Write the structure tokens for this entry.
Amino acid sequence: MTVNLDDKGLNSVVNKFDLFFIDIWGVIHNGIQLFENSINVLDELENLKKDYVLLTNAPRPNSTVIKFLKKMGMNEKKCERVYTSGEAALNHLANNCNDLKFFHIGPERDFDLFKLFEKNKVNKIEKSDFILCTGLFPEYEKELNFYKKFLKNEISKKMICTNPDLIVDRGNVREYCAGSIARIFQEIGGTVDYFGKPYPLVYNQAADIKNKKVLCIGDNLNTDIKGANKQNFNSMLISDGIHKIEINNNFNNLFKEYDVTVDYIQSSLKW
């Protein structure tokens, strides 16, 4: 049974847990500004000396996301808690792909992910050994059918997806993410290696989870909540996030549709 914490707040269950994985986009900020109540929650966790990780499916290194958060006004201490799906992918590339050529699908702002491997980047997909997908091309950011045609002759190659999210809300604008392209690639017969939630590797890289009682907090059922379920962690859904329109006070049907279990729910993160 899902427990609503809108009235009691996170503080009513905080002592049940040793470690908190907290999503960033949709929970800590909306792509434009930090949420004051969420920052207050982080302050309270620090006061209680509770361990937390700001775990995000951002297709960029930790350092890039930290710069973005600092511009929004987040302090250094909190920024040190950031761990990204891009960082997890970067570790994999460094250990496994040094000698392989890749073709990049995504915007230029993601180039810092592969600065160390820039010499391996090729400009024609047919000359690549694998495909690195961090997002969508700006000129085709709303045209998913383009990618089906573009990738149809490349399914013998592996795709590395650095953000399993399908969509994200930037303020009030909904945008496709790398996960949408990866799903298309799989649908036409390709193979994808995913880095980020809900896949286990990112949790193990981000923190020492052994023998810890863990609560995962996020607004995405496909990534935040499904990841918690796969790891046998407890979960809390932020309902005013990506699923706000779908939920419409019918939680249980939506959870069945996504095949997830949700332990707690809040409209927005509050202490």
About this structure: Residues 89-194 form a domain with the Rossmann fold fold (CATH 3.40.50.1000). The chain has two domains: 3-57+198-266, 89-194.
